[in-house]
Amino acid sequence: MNFVFENDRPIYIQLVEQLEIYIISGKIKSGEKLPSVRELALKTKVNPNTMQKALVELEDLKLIYTERTNGKYVTKNQKLLDKFKDMYAKEKTEKYINEMQELGFSKEKIVEFLREESI
């Protein structure tokens, strides 16, 4: 895990976002046991309390779950993972389209760019 943090937003929110990407992309596999809070904090160079806060958020989103005395695991719910992946893709797409329109490009020209890049 290689995390880079920006100064303009809370670290725990950035941790949630980056861990979410690792989970929905399969870099952290469905059903995989996560390292302990301390291990994750060391790997990402953040305070354990900050990491715990991020993990609570991921648990609230149902992307991870806790097994009493066994630790935290990534959800096995593939439908949920697909839903998050689709939501993330839509957000990225909307952001790209908005930024291109701000530059003065029409939707047709944006689609043309996308077609050229996918070949």
Question: How does this model look, in words?
Answer:
The chain has helices at 11-24, 37-44, 48-60, 78-102, 107-117; strands spanning 64-67, 71-74. It is elongated. The protein has 2 domains: 11-76, Arc Repressor Mutant, subunit A, CATH 1.10.10; 79-117. The chain contains 5 helices and 2 strands; from the N terminus they run αααββαα. The chain is 60% helix and 7% strand. The longest helix has 25 residues, at 78-102. The protein starts with 10 loop residues before the first helix and ends with a helix. The mean pLDDT is 94. It has a two-stranded antiparallel ribbon. A hairpin with a 3-residue loop joins β1 (64-67) and β2. By secondary structure, it is mainly alpha-helical.
Count helical runs: 5
CATH architecture of the largest domain: Orthogonal Bundle
Amino-to-carboxy terminus distance: 30 Å
Order of helices and strands: HHHEEHH
Extract low-pLDDT stretches.
Answer: none
CATH fold category name of the largest domain: Arc Repressor Mutant, subunit A
CATH superfamily of the largest domain: Winged helix-like DNA-binding domain superfamily/Winged helix DNA-binding domain
In round numbers, the mean pLDDT is: 94
Give the tally of β-strands.
2
Query: How are the strands of the biggest sheet laid out side by side?
Result: 1-2
What share of the residues lie within helices? 55-70%
The main pleated sheet reads as: 2 strands, antiparallel
Shape: elongated
